[in-house]
Every structure is written in C-alpha cells, then in structure tokens.
Amino acid sequence: MLKLPKEILERIKCHGENEAPLEACGYLAGEGAEVKEYIIMTNTDKSAEHFSFDPKEQFAAVKTARAKGQTLIAVCHTHPASPARMSQEDIRLANDPSVKYVILSLLDAGIACFTVDKDKKLITEKVEVV
Question: Which tens digits make up the pLDDT trace of 43-100?
C-alpha cells in the first residue's frame, strides 16, 4: 500500500490543474512505500494523452532523491479528462516493473496506483492518503 500525504496529493492536483489540458507528470520519492516528496517533471510530449520525461530531469530527480536518502517510488501523472486508470498507452510505456505508477484524475479526483510486470500484466495497489 502506498502512503501518500494529503499535502503531496494537493501538490500533484495543483500541478495537474496548471498543466491542463496536458498531462502533468513527476516522480514520488520516499522511503519504502511512504511518499515524502513530489518531484515535478516536464511532459516533453506536450500531450493530453501521454507523457515522456526529459532524461536530464530524470537524472536530477534520482540525484535529489538519493541526496535525501530516498528512492523514486513511483511515476506519477494526471489524466485531465478521464478516470484514474492505466490506459493502453500507459501500460505500453510502463517499462520499469520496480516502480509504481500513480494516476490522479482531474475529472473526478480519483487516485489509483498500479504496478506493471515485465509481461505487461497490470496489478492494482491501494493508496492511503495520510
């Protein structure tokens, strides 16, 4: 179960609202399954249906997390006009089975967490807002 502080959820929502109608994206960093920080990333695809990270920003995010004794727990993005579910595009682009994928819907404020294994099997995980 992913533990997500309410303040960080609000940061993700604010970032998503500022980027809408494009998808907003970032990393959730922390310890174990406890989120401590939201690291805002640029959606280099500039798309409302998918996102890509800038490799330089990715490297900086890893360094930031490590400097604080944290790891990158999850890739996070918003769905501006659809529910918090993994689209076929999200599943296709999910290439790291070691991280979680968190989606916040701006449509209905739903939040969901998934892992995607190497065979592209989707596993739903719980999110506890604390």
Answer: 999 998 889 999 999 999 999 999 999 999 999 999 999 999 998 888 888 888 889 9
Alpha carbon 106 to its chain centroid, in Å, reads 14
Structure tokens that stand for 18 in this block: 């500022």
Nearest C-alpha neighbor of 119 from the set 89, 85, 83, 95: 95
pLDDT at 16 > cutoff 90: yes
Hey, how many other C-beta atoms are within 10 angstroms of the C-beta on 85? Answer: 14
Average pLDDT value for residue range 23-37: 96
User: Domain containing 25: what range?
Assistant: 2-129
Domains: count for the chain: 1
Both structure tokens of 64: 């930031």
Name residue 16's amino acid.
G
Q: Which residues contact 5 (CB under 8 A, 6 or more apart)?
A: 35, 36, 129, 130
**CATH (domain of 20):** 3.40.140.10
